[in-house]
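The aim of this short unit is practical: by the end, you should be able to scan a pair of folded records and say something sensible about each. We start with the first protein, listed as its amino acid sequence and then its structure tokens.
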Amino acid sequence: MNITPSLYSWIFYFTITLTLLVFLRRKTIDPLLTGFIASLIYFLPGLVGYISFSYGVGAGSYQAALAPGALVCMSIVVSTLAITTIAYDRLLPIRGTTLRISTPYLTQALAIMMLVGFIASLLTIGKGYLCTEKSALLARVNPWYYLATYSAPLCFVSALSTKSRAIAALSLLLIFADLFVGFRGSASVTLIALCLMQGSWFYQGWKKRIIYLSYILFCGVSLFLVKQLAWNIKYTVSIDCPAISAPSNESGVLPKTNTPSIEKSLPPLQVRGEQVTYTANLLTHKETYTAAFSNSEPMVVQATLNETINRDFKLPAENLVNQLLSGVPGGKSLFGLDVSDTKSFNDFFQKEFFPKATFGMANNPWAQAFSVGRFSMVFIFSVAYAFGLSFLTWLFSNLSGPLRACIAVIVGWWGLYLHRNDVLIEIGILKMVIYIIAVSWLLGLAINTIGKSVLPRIRFQGYNS
């Protein structure tokens, strides 16, 4: 598709260039830079000027030039981030570690949370993890799965920060298992956390800089390819599961109901060894890589923004308010705020905009903002996004040890994944992650207290006997 850059395109290019200069001048790898890189990735259609992705095999495709309003939204997000970054550097210059929070046994507690979630999910989901179709798996996942998958990145980076190699290896195994069954979230945020934790490598000579950049490039390309080849990889060892009604969608929000017990009537497991050769052969074809780009998540996500603007799609502010209220801790039990029936933005747009799509599409917060309050609401969302990154940058710069590592993981869920979630889903993810950290911190303190009070007595009694 040949697209001639419009005035709005040049404004977007100019905004990107100025923002890039701001971050190059800072010479700092932190959450604010992560937000800018994430914006570049998800605003990729703005750089090429068009959107194109397949609805599925034999279902057709979506192709369209990028709407001027979409470029305006992208420019608002990027420019707001640049201005906020400049203000942050002037008001809160980076200092050394100043927050001292005791986190005894935090890594071990996170490992306990991860294992509890993993074992419980195996007992309730079982062979459902190997369902060939992702939609069939999504219908079977439950809160135990989310406990395991959200704990794994936290546990991995925390273990690296405390040099707990056994826990790190176990966590990494679960992250790869999550990737195999079809989910990239935990792998993506782990990659971001590692980039932040090892960011100093970029400034320690060309040798470490090349290693650092090569690692990012390899992992980034791999995650793009995994989306394209996910079905082929999963098909190697899988089960043709029957369809059941799904309590959640692809975007990652916690389901409202649990899978009651492990299914005992699933078809037998099928191992297709020839699929390995077929998948490896796909990697030798140029079309695999071009399709990975054209069908990438940025294309799918920005198509939503494009159609929201082209169709002047509007939603009542009540839906956004209810989504925000879902973030109130104990909202239903303490304050009577029952927002359990609140719909995701996807529930409104996919059937209307993309009825031919054969997969669950991710959300777009900027499209959601535009549908509620046009460009002014996009600006408000942009300010919230930039301020959130600023706060995370301050925490990341002033903490140390496993807690700092946990902040790096939160940066991934906020800085990157906000671009493909609506408010409801983003709040659901962040609440779960923060709850896991808080409960693990308290559990670690309890283990430490018990260790100090009980173990000396045991040793003393043993000595007397």
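Turning to the second protein, read its sequence before its tokens, just as you did above.
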Amino acid sequence: MYRNWKLASIPVVLGLALAACPGPEELPIGTLKVTTSTKRLDGEGQSTDVYITAVDENGQAGTGTVTVSAKAGSLAGSGQELDLPLEGGKVSTTYTCIRLPAVDSGCKGSIRIQGTWNDVVGSTSVIISPPDAGTPSGTDAGTDAGG
């Protein structure tokens, strides 16, 4: 009888242990998708369109404002952070990154473009191509014909 009592108490102890454990952390509700029309930019003024789509927890088009940011470059010519109103759960803007030190020395390698909406985060990245081997602006003056 003693042995059966121990086996019978296992589900009770296990149930109490599980009840004492905290539940999973509350996750953000909804989704935010960030995409671009081009994944690679030349770093010399080429731009890409940035598309953002927000969907709430019920599968409906998101409402409100999305904050879009990038560590370098410019969003819609307005700087590295921009608040945009959603229309029908969507919004778009432009992104450019000019590599010249006088303009933006951070325009190199992979640049993350991030959107934040109601604590939901979505992001994508663009690659800023390295400069050509010619002049600092990436153009080559050609060869001298002599004279």
